C-alpha cells in the first residue's frame, strides 16, 4: 500500500470495520475506500484517488467535492454522499466522508464511485466476535460474501476457491481451528496482485500469492503443482510452550498482551511428502488479537524456541490487534515493556533510547546504563539494523575475509550483507570493530529504509541543493547521494544548523535517533 495512504489510515484501522474490497480491473489502479458504519446508521471515512495514469478518477483531481454512491447489501441504492477534498499530496487526492446518518440502517453498505469501484463496509455486530481477523478486531465476516470461504473441516474445496480467486483479487478463508489445507491448483491462475487472507480466531495471515513460486516448491518434494497442497498453520501455544513464552516476557520485566501463536506454512505432495516454507523474498503481514489496550511501548515480538529469547518484529498495535510484518515464520506474541537507564536522564536522546529499548531493538551496556555518548562499531550497528528489520541471522556464508563464523557478529553481518545493507572495503574486509562514521550510518539507514519499502529519489540537482546548505558537505567522502537522501527523507539531522559532521564517529544516542526516525517513516513502529 502507498506509504501516504498507510499513514492516513493507520489511526482509523484501530476500529475499521472494512472487510473486503471487491476489486474490478480498475479498482486497484486508482481508488481506495476506508470507512466505518455504526449500528445507528452513521458512516464516515475517506476516499483516495491515486493519479497513476488510469482513467478512473481522472475527473476528480481538480474538484473540491465528489459524489460517492451508497448501496445496500443487495445492491439497492440508498443515497449519495458528497465527500470533500481534504488534501492532495504525492499524487494522491484525499477526500473525507463526513459523519452522515443514512436513510436506513443495513447490516452492510457498499461505497461506489462511478459504478466501477466498490467496497463493503460492515457495522459492528450486536454480539462482538472473539476475533474476526480483518479490520481491527471485532469486524464481521458475512458467510454470504463470495470472497469469504468457510473451512470448517480444515480444508478448502478446490472449485469453490478457484471460483472465488477468478472473481476476486482478495479472498478470505475463515478457519475454524488452527490449520487449513489449500489446494494449490485453485491458485495457479490467480490475477496479478491477488491476496489470500487466512483468518482464525487466534490470528490471521495476509498472503500475497505472487510470494509463492509453486513450480519450484513442487519440485522440492517431487510433486506436480496439480497435486500440491499449501498447509497454513495458526496455532496458539498451550501448556509448557505457552508458559515458556510468558516466563521469557516476565524475565524482561514486561507484560504479555497477546497469546503466543505459531505461524507456519508447509507444502505437501500427493504422497504425503512435506517441506516447510520458512522464508520469503518480502515482508508478509500477519495479525494477532490483543488481550488489552497497549501503551506506546507495546510491540510485537518473535519468540525463539531454541534460545528461549524474544526479539523485535516490525509492526503496529491498535487498541485491539497487532498487525506485523516479517519475511519468515515463527512464534509471535505481543508485549509491553518499559525500560530506562540512569545515565540518559536529561540527555537529548532519552526519548529515542527509552522507546527502542522498550521495543527490544537496543540494549543497555548494563541493566541500568546505556552510555549514550559512546561510539558504536560497524558490527554493533549491523546488529541493530538487522534487529530493526526483523531479519534472521545468516551464518552459512562468510561475506568478508575478516569475519569468522565463530565471531559473535558473524550472523548479523551476514544478514546485513545478504540484504544489501552493508558493504565491505576494497581489500575484502568488513572491519567490524572499526567505529562507524555518520556517513556510513546514513548510507546503511537509507538502504534499510528502501529495503523496508520506503521511497526516496534525489536527482543530481536536488542532491546538490540539499548538500549546499551544509558548510562541511565537501568532507563527504563517497556517500553524497545517501546523505542527501537521508536528509530529504527526514532520517538525518545536522550536528548544528550548518554542519553535518559526516566524518565524525556516530554515538549510540545518534544511532537510536536515526533508527527511530527510520522505523517511524516506514510504519514499523507507531
UniProtKB/TrEMBL annotation:
Residues 1-29 form the signal peptide. InterPro entries: Cell_Envelope_Struct_Comp, SLH_dom. Keywords: Signal. Coiled coil: none annotated. It comes from the Bacteria. It comes from Paenibacillus oceani. This is S-layer homology domain-containing protein. The lineage of its organism: Bacteria, Bacillati, Bacillota, Bacilli, Bacillales. Residues 336-395, 396-459, 466-526 form the SLH domain. The keyword Transmembrane does not apply.
